[in-house]
Amino acid sequence: MKMVKIQMAGNLWKLLVKQGDEVHKGQEVAILESMKMEIPIVAEEAGVINKLYKSEGEFVDEGEVLLELTE
Predict the structure, then answer these.
(1) What does the alpha-carbon distance between residue 65 and residue 28 come to, in Å, rounded to a whole number?
(2) Could you tell me which residues are beta bridge partners of residue 22?
(3) What angle do CA 30, 31, 34 make, to 5 degrees?
């Protein structure tokens, strides 16, 4: 399993994908709002989204898992 993790603490402003979606390496999967800035979260590897761990509007900390990918 491959995991996409949060790079910094903030509010998960927008999810751009849903469970079952295929994502490509470098694709934006979510937008994080931190210190009045929008920070994109990108998939570091390609795969299919198996599970989403966070929801829009939720506060997240650095290092937390956002989603899980399968091959």
Answers:
(1) 15
(2) 48
(3) 140
